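Appendix C reproduces, verbatim, an entry submitted by the partner laboratory led by Prof. M.T., so that reviewers can inspect both the input and the predicted structure.
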Amino acid sequence: MIKSKTHFARIKRKNILSASCILAALLLQLCAFGQPQVRPMVADKLYDAQSVHMEGFLGERLDASYANRILAQSVDRLVGPFKNRTETSCWQSEFWGKWFTSAVLAYRYRPEPKLKKVLDEAVSALIETQTADGYIGNYADANHLDHWDIWGRKYCMLGLLAYYDLSHDGKSLQAAQKLADHLIRELTAKKVSIVQKGNHRGMAATSVLEPICLLYARTGDKHYLDFAEEILRQWESPDGPQLIAKAGVDVARRFPKPRNWFGWEQGQKAYEMMSCYEGLIELYRLTGKAIYRVAVEKVWENIKATEINVAGSGSGVECWFGGKHLQTIPVNHYQETCVTVTWIKLSQQLLRLTGDARYADAIEQSYYNALLGAMEPHGAGWAKYSPLSGERLQGSEQCGMGLNCCVASGPRGLFTLPFTAIMKAKEGVSVNFFSEGAWTLQTPGGQSVTLTQQTDYPESGNITLKLSGFQSEAFDLFVRIPAWSQGSALKVNGLSMNRPPPGQYFTIRRTWKPGDSVNLVLDMRGQILHLGELPRNIAIVRGPLVLCRDARLGGVNVDATISPIVDKDGYFDLEPSALHQNGIWTAFRGLFRLESHKEEGNQPVPLLICDYASAGNTFDDGSWFRVWLPQPYDPR
């Protein structure tokens, strides 16, 4: 345990009350004009586009969430708990920040005055609840810092900072500073370690690292950087989660199985752990300390290797459990949507930082399957857990708030894709994801260029990119070739290029002119994944989509033993079906061999399978579905 006299030794009370306040006043004047205060030691490789408009299936999903989740949310319901301050253990204070950060992303995507008015009022309503000493929260005075109190403060800071970045409103930045300063003073005055507060070995509380780093970047006030480094020192203490020292340890094996699954001693909590590593990436940007980046990359690789399933997510009862190799069996409370969203966000942090295609591959896998599969078709609700077989069910209400953590989190993942799909790079433009729509961004020469995608991807692998709205300029166009596309073809203005290798970006370096086009054809042949020996199971994938049996599609029982008929190269021939009903997005017909107890066997039969996002996604009628198909054991 860190002795009390060393707690936040570098964060003197007089610094908080005097020098920092003077500096903050000066910086607020500068920030009002949108001037950055701290230049990162490490620059990102990729940056957001200026504007986005998406169509097709993804555009429909975004519009549904915009109308039925973002705009439909009662702000008064979210702000209400902050006026009472009687809580002792629950997490009502997270919901405002989760919804608000989603709403800011939605507004950036589609800046409608109606939503801006809602955002303005939501920030004003929250700031009105701030106490004179800076606290924003709903915990009783005697219970400050306990359970989910700091976690909730984190989400309030993230929301206030998101609004500041959107509007350059000094009041929201000042409110975030007052909230952070109050937290630092309170920890110092009570002489407690932040890793000993809250749940999950302090990971819930210390995930406040992310907004603290963002505050330092926006104000230049060094006591926030000092606090961030103090959090890391406490991480590595005997009482801390040791997120850097244990970066090379399997995320499911870092600590003994706890007696209280959701208590302080639970060190495998997936969502909170990844949230801490998101903050560590922000601190790496600010300091350039390589050990921080190495830790995050090690953890990401470990999660990918040991936890992430075929649908692109993981966790059981909200914790890491070595689930990648157990995904063919029923798992209790599998694949929490909060985990899915945070895995996407962590991967996006690394994609922005490095421009590495493996992170884009992981995002795409998770987005098209686990994330969209958790979203109800109308966009109002989200499943809390998403199995790989069975049925999809709505999660229970939490904390008397009319929603749960995953309903609040789902749009945070959904609205990250528009500005991640095509991004600005120092050398040109990076095409990370494929979807019908148009992106406007800046070229290396400072021009505004519009890149339009024409495609029905992933129903097919045909993608056309067109450039317009600029004068001729030499720059690079980076096009991601997914790792699963073994036989891609690419043309520029009708001229064939070398076959692009999978799992990396293909660079097209030339002087571009308005009207230039790139045609990409990805390899969408059905592939068979194998897992386990006894029993042996297979899953069918096509492009980024995991395909499933679904009772709505008819045919033999969903749980029947069937085997796909593959060609000599091991690919599974899938014929697109015109079936677009009963909530089915994409369906394909393939030939299967049914289990037979007759000596002569059965003839292959055609069966329909559909995408995981559609499978069982009815919520009201319990449609049964299955991803992994058990295979018959042959003693020969």
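Confidence is low (pLDDT under 50) at residues 1-35. Additional entries are available on request from the coordinating office.
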